[in-house]
Amino acid sequence: MTSVPTATPPPSMAGLQHAVDEFGAYQGPEKSWLAFTAATAPAADFTRAAHRKAAHTWLNAWTCRIRYPRPGEPDVFGAGLSAWWRTWRTSLPPMDVSLSELSDAQVAAAGDCFAALTASPAAQTKTVRTFGPTAASKLMYALRPKALLPWDEMIATTLHGTRDRAAYVAHLRLARAWAQALLTESGVDEDALCARLGRPGRTLAKLLDEYCYIVYTRDAGK
């Protein structure tokens, strides 16, 4: 069962600052993200083979472990991502909408996009592997870094009990409430808040993901 998002209070400013500082020690995610954004500038377009390849490389740098095709094998990842993109790209929130601004309709549409991507084929060995909920959430973030945030299994199951569409929608609603609370508490806009936290040029969605990783993945069970 998916938990009620409002049951989890937002991080304090001090708690978010601590998590962001701790996450800053991990250099790999930042380097891989910069490589992906450089390869897909000014925006990712998964009708382009080079952009799909960059996405595959970036996901594997973020520990998704999606098998690369060997010479002569079909590009299952590229075909699956391209087909999803052609169908669902217009359902994603606008590029300029931030997490705190997402409407309920936009959250619901993002849930539909996530569910379709989760079920799309990504690789083949003896059986077809789909993208699954972790890789799908990371790709959704890559496409809309202002509005959407990724998760992993620990974050999803700790906060929502599962990783299906309903849980993803609940996660976006929870993160939206956190973002709104933090903006109200700080009294500044998102760009200024991220700069105050030492991460100018990043998004509040990204910083909240870093908080979730530190609290619910890295420090779980400590």
Please describe the topology of this protein.
Layout: H1 13-23, H2 27-40, H3 49-61, H4 76-88, H5 104-118, E1 121-124, E2 128-130, H6 132-143, H7 153-160, H8 165-186, H9 190-196, H10 204-218
Antiparallel strand pairs: 1-2
Helix pairs in contact: 1-10, 2-3, 3-4, 5-6, 5-8, 7-10
* Rg on CA atoms, Å: 17 Å
β-strand number:
2
Poorly predicted residue ranges: 1-6
Average pLDDT, rounded to a whole number, is: 93
Could you give a short account of the major beta sheet? 2 strands, antiparallel
Taken as a percent bin, the fraction of beta residues is: under 5%
Count every helix, treating DSSP H or I runs of 4 or more residues as helices.
10
How widely separated are the two ends? 26 Å
* Assembly form of the protein: single chain
SSE string, helix = H, strand = E? HHHHHEEHHHHH
- Spatially, the strands of the biggest sheet line up as 1-2
Shape: globular
Helix content: 55-70%
Specify the structural class: mainly alpha
